[in-house]
Amino acid sequence: MLKNTIVVILLIAVLCAVQHYSVSHLAVFGVYPDIVTIYIALAAIRHGQKQGTSYGFIAGIATGLLSGNIGLEALTKTIEGFVAGYFHIPEDSHASSRQKRQMYYKGVFLASLFGRALHTLMANVLSLPVTLHVAFSIGVGTLLTMIVAVIAYQVFFKKIL
């Protein structure tokens, strides 16, 4: 258990650095996919809501240290882990691969949606009118995150879940 937690924390640190130094440069009008959210959702789906929430908090602190906005990042990532944890698939589950894939997509989608919504409402980074900013940031951000989540599932996570 401790070994798994250490591996997850190290992976979160690496993903936060990749997110901050690489993926954030792939922005479409200031909005980019969130690979940290994808991993938080995967961890919450695999390990449960409590651990997903804890991993989200750790990821939020790491992301916040890199971005300079610790409080907001910690809050949004914690909520993302909590939301994705509702789609937890126990190890002894008899769910089919199709059901597991659906739970993964639902978990990532809702975690991204809730995280983006909270982050967008608390930080208007584009200085757009509020309604346009909310629709653009949440819609496009969630769409980009889901595209990356689908690719990540097909390439990496299919065998894990």
What's the overall geometry? globular
- Quickly give the structural class: mainly alpha
Number of strands: 0
Helix content: over 70%
- CATH 2nd-level architecture: Orthogonal Bundle
The residue-averaged pLDDT reads: 87
Sketch the major β-sheet: none
Strand content: under 5%
Radius of gyration: 15 Å
Query: What is the fold-level CATH name, i.e. the topology?
Result: Arp2/3 complex 21 kDa subunit ARPC3
> What's the domain count?
1
Total count of helical runs of at least 4 residues: 6
CATH class: Mainly Alpha
Q: Which residues sit in consecutive blocks of at least 5 with pLDDT less than 50? A: none
The SSE order reads HHHHHH
State the distance separating the first and last CA atoms. 18 Å
Outline of the structure:
This protein is mainly alpha-helical. Helices cover 75% and strands 0% of the residues. It has a single domain, classed as Arp2/3 complex 21 kDa subunit ARPC3 (Orthogonal Bundle), CATH 1.10.1760.20.
Description:
With 161 residues, the chain is mainly alpha-helical. The chain has one domain: Orthogonal Bundle (Arp2/3 complex 21 kDa subunit ARPC3), CATH 1.10.1760. The chain has 6 helices and no strands. It starts with a helix and ends with a helix.
Fold blueprint:
Blueprint: H1 2-21, H2 35-47, H3 49-67, H4 70-84, H5 97-122, H6 130-157
Descriptive keywords:
single chain, mainly alpha, Arp2/3 complex 21 kDa subunit ARPC3, globular
